[in-house]
Amino acid sequence: MKTLYLSIPLLLIMFAGFFLGERNSDHYQFALDTIKLEKPFTESPVLSAGESLKAMKIEPGFSIQIVAEEPLVNSPVSVLFDKKGRIWVVEMENYMPDTVGTGEDQPTGKVVILSDRNGDGRMDHRQVFLDSLVLPRAICLIENGLLLAESPKLWYYEIQNDKPVKRTLVDPEYAEGGNVEHQPNGLFRAIDNWIYNAKSSKRYRKVGDKWLIERTHFRGQWGISQDDQGRLFYNNNSENLQGDFFSPGLGASNDNQQRLRGFSENIIKNNRVYPIRPTPGVNRGYMKDILDDSLRLVNFTAACGPVIFNSILFGKEYYGNAFVAEPSANLIKRNIISEKGYQVAGRQAYTEREFLASTDERFRPVNLNVGPDGALYIVDMYRGIIQHKTYLTPYLKNQIKARNLTEPLSFGRIYKIVPAGKKVRSQTLPSARAQLLPLLNHSNGWVRNQVQQILVDSKNKSLESTLRTMLHNRVKTQSAIHALWTMEGLGVLRKTDVLPLLNEKNWTLRAQALSVSPSVINKENYREFLGKFNRMLSSNDTLSAPYLAFLAGKIHTFNPAAARSLLISVSKKYPDNIFIADAVISNLKNQEAGFYDELKADTSHAISRQLKKVMDDLKKKSAGSPDLSKEYPKGLALYRSVCQTCHGPEGNGITGLAPPLNGSDWVKGDKSRLAKVVLYGLSGPITVSSKLYKAPEISGEMPGIAANSNFSDEEITQVLNYIRNAWTNKADKITKEELAGIRLKYKGRQQAFTEEELK
């Protein structure tokens, strides 16, 4: 029998329900339960890096080393390594200084360069590259400069002698709308030479002095990574790992499709976590099934910073594993990834334990990286508060007060994990281009990717012949892949490099050839590619079929009739493959109905069902929605900052996050019911327009905003009326007086509603 210990702050939590006017007995019982903490956890002292290290429990056979700590680093949220092995750190110093975010908009953020001058593996020098930034969130090194995301803008800084000398605006609307938790981030430079983001549907590429901005698939929430084939992986806060089955540049051309299979797939379906300390300090810890009987978090609630570990330092059984951070539970999870054909799946590596977990409540791993030495690097923001004020519940505010989690505000650490007793060294990158080329076959993925980027940035086309020789050495698959994309980045890739690869028995190389084809298909050679695609289709190359459907869009540029014929052929040959069906439809923007009639397929087939769904969604779109920005300006602003990040700019929902608002009976129906949901939240599952939505298709719960003093009743009333009359919705208005009446009736409520309650 465990002894229970009480502290005065925790006793106050017990009575918080009464002070807030709470009448719900479940809330009161949970308030009692939250004081059942073992003595070591009734307080959360601020620990030094060395002390925090001792609080960590890691998989046997590994050790954790301090790479940097305060005052060398402060509130880090993202890092990357340059070709010299230095660490560039994004510091978000003013994130949530207290529970109301006082001073969060002050320009205290920085980008700093950390160096290890004595070569002992620990950073010992700090240089501020940029300061006076407001909540910076991501960086990317490219050519002689640095991309910086400082919401809402994306800037490019040219660099001379490690100092910024010129600033260029790349995208004024990089992070339009949303709040700190829900804005684009990542700036991940992928193997296909494009820069991708989490929580975004944009990708970027520098061509000469110009920046290309293209539409891509909307992905993830915080953090993004890739595997050796260049497939992207990410997650949202309640899902362990999501990812793509196909090359990231394919299939994003039809915005009539609300869901395209093969992208944003749920890779790990098990979202269970295993903290080694009670974790009552999570935003909805008062709700049933959020915490277990020992007050430990049950499932992910702040999943972030995933990395595909493409280093052999840990041994072959760890290569290609996905590691995911969970700062709310003070742990890092290991997942094992497998693939079958073009599909990717995975499972948790352990049951009832984690790769790394800590009893230090302020240990907040927010990003993970593979370093130049092949080690796994951990970015620890080391904060008490990690929930943004937009969604902060009274319950969590009490938890923060009970253990003084507003402190510290100037700490931060970077750790690395290495095999116990093993000395590791960073790979030194030579300056000579010829000496770099063999490193495209290095066993550490960071080295391979870095070398590719250096070669592309050099714009040195004299490397073409050597790269082509590497491409033809198909035995070394990984170096052939990097040679292929390096040539693409240098602009020296030819049809004669790609067409032979389409005959490869090695599926990995064949898939890369298909993925790179859009870069080389042109007016002069498209017939050769089209002929090859048709032969691949006739030869029953099932794995290539989705790619052939995606690539029809490129053929369409030069011969629409031939592209249409290819799509018809693919559809008829594989009518029940949903991945192929969605790939076909990705080329048919505003032509779905005509293709449906032309196909004349059995309506039970996947291709027909998917077409019909898109056609039905199009019918729901309003022909001429009224301009509500003038009538509800505050409502539109609130929608963009809070709601849009999960429900989408057109209210059509986002897979993995939230169901649609457009056409929803929850929105157009009982206005008091909608007001309750917005004020106090809704816990899933939920049925919208006869369709059941539940995790992992959506997040488990929509948080309410009743407790957020930043939002006035005028703003909340406007956002309710905005969504009730936007898009295809049309419903009567709710007044501020009606909203106030609902607030009074449910004064003090913390728990989210369920569908059953609201019925």
Report on the structure:
There is one protein chain. By secondary structure, this protein is an alpha+beta fold. The chain folds into 3 domains: 44-253 and 264-419, TolB, C-terminal domain (Neuraminidase, 6 Propeller); 521-620; 633-758, Cytochrome Bc1 Complex, Chain D, domain 2 (Orthogonal Bundle). It has 23 helices and 31 strands. The strands form 9 sheets. Strands 1, 19, 20, 21, 22 and 23 form a 6-stranded antiparallel β-sheet that branches. A hairpin with a 2-residue loop joins strand 28 (686-688) and strand 29 (691-693). The two termini are 42 Å apart. Mean pLDDT is 90; it is low at 1-35.
What attributes characterize this protein structure?
Neuraminidase; 3 domains; 759 residues; Cytochrome Bc1 Complex, Chain D, domain 2; alpha+beta; 6-stranded antiparallel sheet; 4-stranded antiparallel sheet
- What percentage of amino acids are in beta strands? 15-25%
Q: What Rg, in angstroms, do the CA atoms define?
A: 26 Å
* CATH-derived architecture of the largest domain: 6 Propeller
Largest sheet: 6 strands, antiparallel
Give the number of DSSP strands: 31
Q: What does the average pLDDT come to? A: 90
The CATH topology assignment of the largest domain is Neuraminidase
- CATH class of the largest domain equals Mainly Beta
Assigned CATH superfamily of the largest domain: TolB, C-terminal domain
Number of contiguous helices: 23
Number of domains: 3
The assigned structural class equals alpha+beta
Q: Level of helix content?
A: 25-40%
Poorly predicted parts: 1-35
Overall geometry? globular
Distance N to C terminus: 42 Å
